[in-house]
């Protein structure tokens, strides 16, 4: 009886242990599956940005060289020139060139200014400058140099990497001939890099700053309208023409004066010779016909 109770107790404990082990194994399997799924999801989530990054193409910023030309007329050239300077300062630009001509009274008659304006303010600056007086002409050009800028940047990067590799080889070189050869190649690559850097700087300057050339003339200059009509303008024009004629005659006389002695030395003997021959030709017939006169 005691033996039967003992066997029954062992079976019950064994069954409980098996079921507990099965449950623990199941729980462990479920945890492993969850961790695997979580890890897989995390892996997919982590790899997704990399995949998108590889698929997304690099978009280069568009590089444009903008230039503009403006011609205006105004009654006060000096005032308009000052206004151009104000517009330039307003947009953080600068006057690269300036040329001003004056009339007989010393007043500015026309001016030409070359402005460098940030490209972001090019359109606004053009619109403001066109309002400074009566607009005669206005034109703009835009040149896309994006490909050239990108190509230059890549070539600069490659040239720098190449120079670093050559410097590494130079540090490892032991033979004098190798050192000389490597130094020559290094100098060539550095010269090429300097040329590319200069080209890169020029493109950066042209794309970051636009160029505007503005010409301002005094209104009515050379128009030939009412101010040129009437008695006084006609009299003034007549005196001007007479003075020009006198200057022309005096200039011609001054040019011919040195030749007068030369002409006299040649012309006077010829004139005397011709005159003598004419005198002889007129006297010979009168002396050659006395017999005919007696008959």
Residue fraction in strands: 15-25%
User: Which runs of at least 5 residues are low in confidence (pLDDT < 50)?
Assistant: 1-57, 222-227
Question: How widely separated are the two ends?
Answer: 219 Å
| Count of individual helical segments | 8
CATH class of the domain at 65-146: Alpha Beta
Transmembrane segments: 256-274
Domain DUF4349: 62-271
InterPro entries: DUF4349 (IPR025645)
Biased composition (Polar residues): 27-36
Provide structural commentary.
InterPro entries: DUF4349. Residues 18-56, 81-110 are annotated as: Disordered. Keywords: Membrane, Transmembrane, Transmembrane helix. The protein is an alpha+beta fold and 295 residues long. The chain has eight helices and five strands, in the order αβαββαβααβααα. A five-stranded mixed beta sheet has the order 2-3-5-1-4. Helix 4 (146-172) runs antiparallel to helix 5. The radius of gyration is 51 Å and the shape is flat. Mean pLDDT is 76; it is low at 1-57 and 222-227.
Task: Tag the structure with descriptive keywords.
295 residues; alpha+beta; Alpha-Beta Plaits; 8 helices; 66% helix; 18% strand; disordered N terminus
Quick structural summary:
The protein has 295 residues and is of the alpha+beta class. It is 66% helix and 18% strand. Among the domains are: 65-146, Ribosomal protein S6/Translation elongation factor EF1B (Alpha-Beta Plaits, 2-Layer Sandwich); 149-207.
